[in-house]
Fold GLUE N-terminal domain-containing protein.
Amino acid sequence: MPIANKLVNKLEWKDALYLYKDETIINSWVGDHEWTYVRKGRRPTKITNKENGVLVLTNKRLIFLEEKGMFSKSYRLKLSIWLSKINAISMGGILRKYVSISSDINQENSFHVAGIGNESELELFRQKIDHYKIEKRGKSEKIPSIVAQPIATMTTSQRTAVPLDDDNFQKGFAFEEYFISLFDKYPFRLWYRTKDKPFKADVHTESDNLPDLTFRNIETNQKIFIEAKFRSNLVDNYLYVAKPDSLERYKTYSRNENAPCFIVVGLGGLPNNPNRMFLLPLNEIRGAYLSPSVFQKYERNPTKSFSWDEFECIPIKNGGK
């Protein structure tokens, strides 16, 4: 059943939403997100969780931002689905008051939100998805009205991850989105985000030399650069970080800008649910592969939010060798 009866009119949630170039917000709704996963064990158990927040439809994605805090409200990214990945949308529940979304990543998401209790609102989703697929694939694909299967999500206490395919961009994007969601809203401000390859022309641009993300401390104006990497496993017990020429470009940029650079690596598990995470100062990286004696010093809890102190307490040499 819906938990709200009006469209979103607050703007605070937009601070937690990072849009791509040419991506625009079409509509948004207050509501909750109900998701289901199967807890493994001798007797597998189906578990259902629910999160309050905001559902956002853009011309490229369907996004859910979870609401945090009882008195001082804030939001963090919980779910991002490319419209091209959605296979089905169906109405369901008591009085058909929720929308269930099915994609090709085999899990279920049900959104109990205001204003999506009728076929006209449902058609809004279908039209935008069809339009997006026409743009991306050059043809329209019918969205069947079927019962949805589970989709992925993340929670702080008990998270389920998206089993993505082998496409490196999808893995990198999923990890980058998850990584951004771990930053406290204050005092961090996302200052710059490089364009992702699928959205760039088939040419090399100057921004290709930059780390993925630039954050700024809104109190001190200090900047930090971060390159996010996801690795499925170690290579002969060594951690592969990045190509040597890429590392040298990051070091040069860091020196020129007089701001520290870090490589954040998610290891094992899945991109939006890594088993391990490492916050590596660029000046500690001497080559493409790091030994356990180096990278284990910088291991952190992969579910813990970042604070500015965590970056300040690591020795910085401005990207020097």
